[in-house]
Amino acid sequence: MVGILSDDYTPRVSEPPHDAPGAGPVLAVSSNKGGVGKTTVSTNLAVYFRALREDLPVLVMGLDDQGTLDRMFRLQPASPGEGNLKHAFAGRSLEPVIQLGQYGVHFVPSPPDLPGLKARAEDPLTLRRILNRTAWQGVVILDTKSDLEALTRSALYAADRILIPVADWASLEEAAKLFSLLEKAGLGRERARVLLTLVDARTRADEEGHDLRSLLEAELDRRGWPRYRSHLSRSPRVEALNSVGGRPLSILHHAQGTSVHRQLRALAEEVLADLGLDAAPRRPLSVRRGPEPPSAAGATEAAPTLASLTGAFLRGFRGR
Questions:
Q1: CATH of the domain at 160
Q2: Are 240 and 255 spatial neighbours (Cβ–Cβ below 8 Å)?
Q3: Number of Cα atoms under 13 Å in the Cβ half of residue 44
Q4: Parent domain of 161
Q5: In-domain check, residue 314
Q6: pLDDT per position as a tens digit, 276-289
């Protein structure tokens, strides 16, 4: 990682990252430490954004080869010759490869391998140019790999806001490398916001009995790093949603009654406001029901119950 942080690594830019007429903001979720909840945050923010703002197109992209986003949002099996993110980089536009997915969220299929894609992203402004050319009329969410390599750097340069999940002291120290990269690249730390994830306030972190979340918040404030007021707690029930039937399930529809369910709504509202896309006043949420995914052995039956689950969710928030 030493080379990544060198002064001559990437060009400095001062102009705003998103300058295409009419295009919406870009949110990158980034940490060079794994296991801090990047993909969980990215995918579920996309679902909550659609629920809070049904008029807002949401596009989510995974800059890795894990395929988690594809499994969560895909409605139809991949067809031979189907376009993916690698084709978008080659053609300098996302438009031909964008698909409508579950929960009304659009996504770009992930590439089967990364080496060729990384080579196309050596210029850190490549993704920014692709997004500007595509001019998506809504919000774009970029889920990055757990590194600070070419594709991640492209996401940082393309983003209007960078959300950095921090789950413990180790990930906080790794976040320091990301803040350093932003400063050296001329992007500025103000573009980033730390989000505390997977942190249980009941966890005692020192002999005086201080809880881990309070200690992390105090350290973030001491370092002067911008952070979101919202946080996400660790939840075994939420963790299980990523391992049921091969298709990750949304927290909005399948984790009612958990603290994370409520916390994600608060986070989604805070991030929308931060992006200049305030959620509508407190009113019934709406998650449009899209086409049914094909039936298959072990497939989830989430789609047929979206309406009833959303209704129960709304009843729990009325009167707040």
A1: 3.40.50.300
A2: no
A3: 27
A4: 20-277+290-307
A5: no
A6: 998 666 555 554 44
Give strand ranges (E) for 178-285: 192-196, 227-231
Residue tagged 């997915």 (tokens): 101
pLDDT tens, residue by residue, 3-28 = 233 333 344 444 445 666 667 999 99
Assigned domain for 238 exists: yes
Q: What angle do CA 317, 52, 64 make, to 5 degrees?
A: 120
Is residue 11 domain-resident?
no
Give residues with Cβ within 8 angstroms of 2, minimum separation 6: none
Is 284 within the bounds of a domain?
no
Closest CA to 42 of 25, 64, 32, 27: 27
Question: What is the total count of domains within the chain?
Answer: 1
Dig out the tokens for 25 from the structure: 């903001």
pLDDT of residue 129 exceeding 90, the answer is yes
Q: What is the DSSP letter of 56?
A: S
Helix, strand and coil content of the chain, in percent to the nearest 5, comes to 40, 10, 45
Helix (H) or strand (E) segment spanning residue 140: strand 139-144
Are residues 261 and 255 in contact, defined by beta-carbon separation less than 8 angstroms? yes
Structure tokens at 320: 């707040």
Which of 51, 24, 20 has the alpha carbon at shortest distance from 161?
Answer: 24
Contact 114, 120 (CB under 8 A): no
Q: What is the pLDDT of residues 56-82, one digit of tens each?
A: 999 999 998 788 899 999 998 888 889
